[in-house]
Amino acid sequence: MSLNCNEINLILSELNLTGSFIQDIIQPGYDTLALTVYKEGGAKTILICAANGETRINETRRKIPKNEKPLRFMEFLKSRIKGAKIISCGQIALERIIKIELAHGDDEFNMFVRLWSAAANVILCDKQNKILDAMFRRPQKGEESGGFFDEAAIWENAQKKALQEKEGGQEEGKKKNGGKFPIRDFLEVQEEILLKHPDWAPLSFNQKVDWFYSESSKGLSRSALLEKAKAWHESHKSRLEAALERLQKKKADFENCGQKKHWGDLILTNAAALDGQSNFLECVDYLSGTTVQIKIDPKKSAQANAARYYELYKKEASGSQELLTEIELAKKKIAALDKAYQEILNEKNPVRIEQLLRKDSAPKQKIKKSHPGLDYTVNGWHFLVGRDANENDELLRHHVKGSDMWLHTRDCPGGYVFIKYRAGKTVPLDILLDAGNLAVYFSKARKNGKADLYYTQVKHLRRAKNAPKGTVLPSNEKNLSVALDNERLKRLESIRQESEL
Q1: Which of 175, 261, 347, 422 is most buried, by the most CB atoms less than 10 A from its CB?
Q2: pLDDT per residue as tens digits for the range 243-255
Q3: Looking at the whole model, is its pTM more than 0.90?
Q4: Which residue stretches of 54-150 are H helix?
Q5: Is 395 in contact with 404 (CB distance < 8 Å)?
Q6: How far is C-alpha 15 from the geometric centre of its chain's CA atoms?
């Protein structure tokens, strides 16, 4: 439940902001703003919340955490009103709209704080009420830079309401002031506060409001936020655990891949038994001594049938290695989720909890990279990897410099791998082998499992005329022979995936 008009007036009277100076501005979330103001006698933090159903303004003693990235409106306010003096502060005609008049040097501003549950906003205007910017930009309502805040219309509507109430009788006016919008006493909150902080007595209305919305309200209190966090954690963890279970089941299936290699060996050993008609080869397994049946293609030779099983074996063996990486990554995701949830449980400040929950539960938006291809960072060395001619050409034209190292398979189409230059550093052999493995892996030499490479600095590359896109002619190159190392590739892929978490 948001503050009503009479509660807002009481809060403003206690705050007594006229004559204060704005020392700092923090925006911990998209719908929350905190102003640190100073007046003779000390500083205080004023919290403005524009969350639906929880709109309020009050003093808070809680530490306001900064957002991970500075938000637009906060940066704008700092550039205009940090250090400004509050000339006046009051509610407009009991309409839950607060007008704060500010002076900063020769500049004067009007800041309007509208505390309507469904349409709350904080709007900064010049002295003529031309909108400079708003917490929530709403072009359809004219609440954007260059728009106009119609303060006169608010007064006119208030006068019309007052006239209607007068014509309806005095009783309606009493309801407006006391019965319809009573000031809550927060007795249960008062007892709880004094139990924990007896030195705070006597309590101000601001203290009661801050405690209620931080600890007891249904929307943004600590208990409500912890319930949301629990639901978020359980739903995300169940999905991650189900995915891990599927990976582990698939791994168990792959663990029998050695049997396929053995079947290929049995087919070659018993090649003479193939009659060209039967779909199965029946033979004695020389390892177990038992008779086995192996499915074959009667139209193919023993070598071709064996090769099929060898190929299946290689695929599943390779897949098993990749699955191990995926399983480790899935376990790390679950551990990271549990760690984030525990951080929320340990946090006492509801503003910080809401911030953590918003950060961790929001859908992860894929960050748009400034360049194509893949990124790997190993021990401070950064690789850029192109996977086709277009990516190779784009990286070479716009994203590498002359001192960067270039690697490519010799006499075999494939991706370019660049090692970014580090001042005063020589590329270590292990880093060169990492890059070399990536160059072989992202080339047609992958099937062979090895390839010869050449490498040189980008400044020694010359574009080949009338050649396919991305083709270059190197000079001052050195040779490197690389055999694919699955453990090395697995480590590199794990590093890359972790960086994207």
Answers
A1: 347
A2: 899 888 877 777 7
A3: no
A4: 72-81
A5: no
A6: 37
Q: What distance separates the 2 farthest-apart alpha carbons in the chain?
A: 111
- Helix (H/G/I), strand (E/B), else coil: 193: helix
What does the block give as tokens for 493? 């892929």
Tens digits of per-residue pLDDT, 264-316? 999 999 999 998 899 999 999 999 999 999 999 999 999 999 999 988 887 77
Helix (H) or strand (E) holding 354: helix 350-361
Fill in the amino acid letter for 330.
A
CA distance 193 to 200: 8
* pLDDT for res 470: 78
Among 107, 114, 48, which residue's Cα sits nearest to residue 82? 107
Give the DSSP H/E element, type plus range, for residue 100: strand 97-104
What does the chain come to in residues? Answer: 501
DSSP per position, 214-230: III-TTTSHHHHHHHHH
Span 175-180, mean pLDDT?
A: 56
Q: Are 109 and 80 in contact (CB under 8 A)?
A: yes
**What residues does 38 pair with on adjacent strands?**
21, 43
Give the separation between CA 434 and CA 478, rounded to whole angstroms: 16
Residue with tokens 């009481």: 10
Classify burial at 154, counting beta carbons within 10 Å of its beta carbon; exposed 0-12, middle 13-18, buried 19 or more: middle
